[in-house]
């Protein structure tokens, strides 16, 4: 399916296998004969060529001495769907026949894609393998980042709560992308949705709810991740322009919007697929106009985020100029680098991917766009969790606590807080009996065994006697 360029793998017709092409041709043939048998004649007088199936596409009734045209079928490998095919009806009301074969002939010469496009198929498996690896790495890093931020209470402030939801959205995107890529056989359906008879693959009749549910979840993960990038960008925009208002306001609105807004265009897309384009597992588009129900809002969010990015850079640049020191400029440059993936700026560049396939330009572009898309979760988790200074401080604190707790359990420290026989024996076998007796006499006045923990998380040693004795 051709969808979002970096994510659903807009790899043009080269991604469609020969077996998938046969299935789609069979589906188009079936629809064509249904139309031939059920639709009334287009003309009732004069001469015309009857509707027909030429083995590739369906042609309607055409007046004599005229030429019928239609967009090149998108399910044929190497065909350019932005060109058109033609079929001429002669003066006698018969389809034009080729002098060489004496059979009716359709002109598909404009549909044939240059040889360079076929050569691009060699890169498809490499790209898909790299994206598969990228989604695995992103999923693992995102889950680790979520665990760190959820179980560390010091990270439970507003911006980090939004970061956690952003990580969850990209985790869903990575997970559903992996499931789709590995469970969909030939890239368009699950193995339970078709059967093989020799060299032929027959798509079974039925609701196919499993593969359609998985593909719908995949689309939701894609939409949710883009919307959450918009939420993060909007929150930062409000934080820069209305700091006090943003700090006082709860993040519940952002959370509800981030997870619910994708349904506003996902549900209409589902109804459009059910009633108007209920083809296979919905991973193939027979009517490209319905694709914009999803692609339109995503494109709009990318553009809005880019405008947020430009405005934030402008505000920060003006404030930096007011201070006028090199250290502030370095901070601005560092912050700008962090804003680029947060606002999804590269997605705007990937939208400019031209529809025509050119190996010299588009194949490297596909490598970059698909790798960025699959590794975007890793990039976000690095910038907003693993490379964050506060995370390092808190992780050191957790580790130091664990080490001290483990050492304490392995080798108990004599402490007057423990009034058992073991403590008394430990006290009296000290080299200096006077110190031990003095400590024992003071056990009821105060505890000399204290655990000191500062805000930095450093744990100091336990003391069991007073140094002034």
Question: Which properties best describe this structure?
Answer:
469 residues, two-stranded antiparallel sheet, 6% strand, disordered C terminus, membrane, transmembrane, GPCR_2-like_7TM
Protein topology:
Blueprint (H helix, E strand, L loop, with lengths): L4 H5 L8 H21 L9 E2 L2 E2 L4 E2 L2 E2 L2 E6 L12 E6 L25 H5 L1 H31 L6 H26 L10 E4 L2 E4 L5 H33 L1 H6 L3 H9 L2 H13 L16 H32 L2 H17 L2 H6 L8 H28 L2 H22 L10 H8 L4 H9 L28
Antiparallel strand pairs: 1-4, 2-3, 5-6, 7-8
* Form type: elongated
Tally of alpha and pi helices:
16
Reading the helices and strands in chain order gives HHEEEEEEHHHEEHHHHHHHHHHH
What is the number of E strands? 8
- Mean pLDDT, to the nearest integer, reads 74
Low-pLDDT segments: 1-16, 413-469
Membrane topology: Multi-pass membrane protein
Keywords: Cell membrane, Disulfide bond, G-protein coupled receptor, Glycoprotein, Membrane, Receptor, Signal, Transducer, Transmembrane, Transmembrane helix
Protein name: Hormone parathyroid hormone-related peptide receptor-like
Family: Belongs to the G-protein coupled receptor 2 family.
